[in-house]
Every structure is written in structure tokens, then in C-alpha cells.
Design a protein that fits this description.
Number of strands of chain A: 10
Radius of gyration of chain A: 19 Å
Protein name (chains A, B): tRNA pseudouridine synthase A
Catalytic activity (chains A, B): uridine(38/39/40) in tRNA = pseudouridine(38/39/40) in tRNA
Shape of chain A: globular
Subunit structure (chains A, B): Homodimer.
Enzyme class (chains A, B): isomerase
Order of helices and strands of chain A: EHEEHEEEHEEEHHE
Helix content of chain A: 10-25%
Largest sheet of chain A: 10 strands, mixed
Structural class of chain A: alpha+beta
Oligomer: homodimer
Mean pLDDT of chain A: 96
Number of helices of chain A: 5
Function (chains A, B): Formation of pseudouridine at positions 38, 39 and 40 in the anticodon stem and loop of transfer RNAs.
Largest interface: A-B, 13 and 13 residues
CATH architecture of the largest domain in chain A: 2-Layer Sandwich
Distance between the termini of chain A: 23 Å
CATH class of the largest domain in chain A: Alpha Beta
Strand content of chain A: 25-35%
CATH topology of the largest domain in chain A: Alpha-Beta Plaits
Number of domains of chain A: 2
């Protein structure tokens, strides 16, 4: 009994996102269903480090929940994996201090975004990478990434539908991109991210890679604090919640 | 108008196999549905190089069909890809002689089978590789592969439910396996394959890799001509119809 922290992975393809919604298949919903069964009908609420949208994947999402059941860590892991659907996998379960909070205690989050950068689409990657058939200038995108690192007001790069109150200042510790085997991998590591922020950033970086904008536009766009000055939010299916770090 | 040969790829995960079945989603069914729509309700039958079971993928399946429509090759490719679901992709369309037959004219077929050989499963590969957590002796498996090459009666390695009449003698031109990044890839290239043959062969090769059998058992097993002397047919989702060659 006590509070348990779980690191989980999921394939976002067949979920309507992380957060519970009535009559929809969600990650939270599937995990809570298993916990309810294990607790003989008692509702057990899980708290996640962050929500992910429909189609977004996770390699290292973290959740916590409280239980009165006397099960040790490896027992929890086995029991959960045995009952969860095959698109959710529990990597580890750890008993933590009752004060631990999967959302409030986060000190760093990391997201990766994958682009399949070749002319022909790849059927087997259609749910796991964004297919982008045009050539990209990697150096320009890397240069643009440099401008993103540091503490900035990211209003321009956040969904106008964002419900979060408070300021939109966040610190990005690392923004980078690399190219290998026709794949571009974007890496963003920071104190926190606004709603849709990574997907809007990638969209603008691709504009820069194509020469539609210059790397030096980044500070100007940040300064505008206006979502309307940048283009569309890129598709969800190339995005991975990669890692969550606690203090 | 005339006869058209198409090379197609599909992700077998969400299909009940290649062949049309009433009220089931199949590869043949989806393609014929698109062709029927293009031909204003007229049924157009497609012929495939081979059938694949539910869960089996294809990188290079070949089909043919006849049409009275005046569309050139690239027009066919575009029209089909625009209307097909996103788990089928047409790689190429070629106008062929009216005598060409996608099944009867095959001179060589190639199948690959992928194993994820690490302790922990990988969620993102669950539909694309068979997860095998035990260590494998690659040299022994390679040695066993040598015994498979050549012309043999493969009755032992064919489903007892096989409906094909006639002899079970087939020629394997290449049987091999390689290990890279925790993945084992089996390659089989031959004149033809019996029902479930590749999946039964891989199952026996894994027995050999684990030391449950010896490479020298292969000629003995072939000699028995009895499906019951070998173990289960391995899962479909690691199998890929890789390439079909015509004379």
C-alpha cells in the first residue's frame, strides 16, 4: 500500500489521447479500468506527468496512483502488464513518498519528433513518423534550434486554444535536430511545454529547412507573442513524449 | 485498356488476410472495391502472386487485373493510391501482355521473417516482429539454413491443412539469417512455398538456435515427411512477402 510511480509507454495510434473522455478509448481510461478491476470496483484515479493528444506516442510517460493493496513493485508491474491492452506497456513501478506528484514535481520534460524525409511514403511508418517529401537544409534548422534554447515567452508557439492560465514563459535546455537514414529527429528538452508547442515549433523549423523562413526569424517570431504569425500545427503522429525527469 | 500488373505493399495488421471473405476486411476486397468504383459498378477480379494470412505483411506482392479503361500506368498508380486505405500502397503499375499471370508466371518468391531478440518487448514493433526473449546461437541457425537450401520434399514443413494437391517438392535457392541491433532477419528465396512453410521453418530454426535441436536434424526431419514431428507454426506478424520474380 502507498503511492506508486509508474513509467509507461504507449502507441498513441488507437487512443483518443491520454485523458479520460466518456465513451472514448484513452490511455488513462484503460489504466484506470485495470486498477478498478484489481481493487474490486473501487475507482483509483491516476495522475500523469502530462496529457498527450490523439496519435501522440509515449516512451516514458510517468503516472502515479495510491493503493491500499499489498503488492510489491515487480508484482504491480506484472499484474498491470498482464491486464493492459497490448498498446500500453508498464516499464517500471516504484513505491514513492506519499508527497510525490507525477505532474507537479516534474523538473524537465523531453519530447522527440520524427520526420520521414524521402519522396515515397513508407506504409509501415505511417503512424510513427510524419512523411515530408521535400529536401531540408539541416544546417539552417540546427541554427534555428539555437535561437529556441533559453528562457523565452512562447506565446507565438502555443495553441490559441490553450486553457492554461498564467505566463507562457518556458526554458528550453536543448533544441536540436539530426538526420540519419532519411529520418529527421527533433529533440526538445525543457522545463515545460505549452499546449501544441512542440508541434508548432517543428512546423516552423520545417519552413526554415525549406527556405520559406530564415533562422533569424525565430527571435522576431518569439517577440510577436502571437500564434497567428506562424503556420499550422504539424500532425500528432510523429510526436513522442520521450522522458520525464523529477527532482 | 488491357492487362495491368501492380506491385503493392500492405501492412497486414488490420486485414483478415489477402483473400476475399464475406464481411471481412481483406487486401483483395479493398482493392476490388476501388476498382469496382472506378468501373462504375462492374466487378473487376484481381489475381495475386500468392495469398497471405491475417497479420502477414507485404513489401512486394504482385497482382494483375484486366480493364477496358483508358488510363496510362502512372494514372492508374495515382488513382489507386488516392482511393485505397492507408495500409495498402501501390508501388508501380505496368501494362503487360494479356497472357501475363501474376500467380502462374512466378519463377521465384522471397519471404523475410523478423524476430525482435531482446528481453523486453517493444510496443512499437508488436505487429511487425515476433518477440523472442531467449538467446539464440546464430551459427547453429545459419548451419541449419544450409541444409534447407536445394530441392526437397517439404511435407514436414507444411500445414497439414494445406489444400494444395500435388507434390510438396520445392527448391529453396537461399535460406539464411542475420543478426543486427537485436533483430534476427530470416531470408527465404525459392521456387515456391507450401502453406505455412516459412512460419514452420522459422519455428524449427528457433528450436535449433536454442539448442533444443541440432542443425543436422533438418535432413532427418525432411526425410520423415510428417508435419507432426515439428513444433508449432510461429505467429504471422513477423512474416513479410518480400519480392516476387517473373520469367
Amino acid at each position: 500500500m502507498g503511492r506508486f510511480k509508474c513509467t509507461i509507454q504507449y502507441d498513441g495510434t488507437l487512443f483518443n489521447g491520454y485523458q479520460v473522455q466518456p465513451n472514448k478509448r484513452t490511455v488513462q481510461g484503460e489504466i484506470e479500468k485495470v486498477l478498478r478491476k484489481m481493487h474490486k470496483g473501487q475507482d483509483i484515479r491516476i495522475i500523469g506527468a502530462g496529457r498527450t493528444d490523439a496519435g501522440v506516442h509515449a516512451l516514458g510517460q510517468v503516472i502515479h496512483f495510491d493503493s491500499t493493496m499489498e503488492i510489491h513493485e515487480t508484482g504491480w508491474k506484472k499484474a498491470l502488464n498482464a491486464q493492459l491492452p497490448d498498446d500500453i506497456h508498464v516499464l517500471s513501478v516504484e513505491k514513492v513518498h506519499p508527497d510525490f506528484h507525477a505532474r507537479f514535481d516534474v523538473i524537465e520534460k523531453e519530447y522527440h519528433y520524427f520526420i520521414l524525409n524521402q519522396e515515397t511514403p513508407d506504409l509501415f511508418k505511417r503512424n510513427y513518423m510524419y512523411h515530408f517529401p521535400y529536401s531540408l537544409d539541416m544546417e539552417k534548422m540546427q541554427e534555428a534550434c539555437q535561437y529556441l534554447e533559453g528562457t523565452h515567452d512562447f506565446t507565438t508557439f502555443s495553441s490559441s486554444k490553450a486553457t492554461v492560465k498564467g505566463d507562457k514563459v518556458r526554458t528550453i535546455y536543448e533544441a536540436s535536430c539530426k538526420w540519419e537514414d532519411n529520418q529527421v529527429e527533433f529533440i526538445f528538452r525543457g522545463s515545460g511545454f505549452l499546449y501544441n508547442m512542440v508541434r508548432i515549433l517543428v512546423s516552423v523549423l520545417l519552413d526554415i529547412g525549406q527556405g520559406k523562413r530564415e533562422p533569424e526569424d525565430i527571435p522576431i517570431l518569439l517577440e510577436k507573442r502571437d500564434r497567428r504569425v506562424v503556420g499550422k500545427t504539424i500532425d500528432a503522429h510523429g510526436l513522442y513524449m520521450w522522458k520525464v525527469t523529477y527532482g
